[in-house]
Amino acid sequence: NRLHAVDITSSSFRLMWPELLSQETGYYTIEYAPTDYPARKRTKQVSGAHTSLLLSNLAPETTYEVALIPESNIHYFPPQTTRVTTLAEEITPAQVFISESGPHSFHVSWGPALDSVLSYQILYGPLPGNSVKLLEVDGKSNSTVVENLAPNTTYLVTVTATYRSGKEKSLSAKACTQEGE
């Protein structure tokens, strides 16, 4: 029943701690900073009724020093500390799959699906050639159908993920349409 972290991702974790205070008897101060950069300390306060708090907007693959300071007007509680290391950032698209290919369309899907992606752009155009079309889909989607294509043609398909942080990551695959009737 000590301070500990659960649901650890590349950019967040949830702190859990035992019930030391109540709404009436005080509040908690949570201080956290990357162990390599103690000067980047951030502080949050929550009421004494809380026994958990989600910390987000964290750096991936970083160890944080976290302190829980119970601020009570009745008892003294020593601060509790823990260290939590965030996970490496998952990158999407890590794979692009082409399926259900017909003469005029094919299905494009990709993975993994991540919460940190805002949107995906699907660029596609025949090879060789430089006429490229763009399709944009929501960050929650992980597949789309590309239509109005020429039969018996090889297309280059590039899926680009735009992250909430502004970063982008692209992956390409080739797709061939079937011969027409």
Would you mind describing this structure in some detail?
The protein is rod-shaped. It has 181 residues and is mainly β. The protein has a 4-stranded antiparallel sheet with strand order 4-3-6-7, with no helix packed on it. Strands 11-10-13-14 form a 4-stranded antiparallel sheet, with no helix packed on it. Strands 1-2-5 form a 3-stranded antiparallel sheet, with no helix packed on it. It has 2 domains: 4-85, Immunoglobulins (Immunoglobulin-like); 95-177, Immunoglobulins (Immunoglobulin-like, Sandwich), CATH 2.60.40. The chain has strands at residues 4-6, 13-16, 26-34, 42-47, 52-55, 63-72, 80-85, 95-99, 106-111, 117-126, 133-138, 143-146, 154-163, 168-176. It starts with a strand and ends in a 5-residue tail after the last strand. The model has no long low-confidence stretch (mean pLDDT 93). Strand 3 (26-34) and strand 4 (42-47) form a beta hairpin. Residues 1-90, 92-180 form the Fibronectin type-III domain.
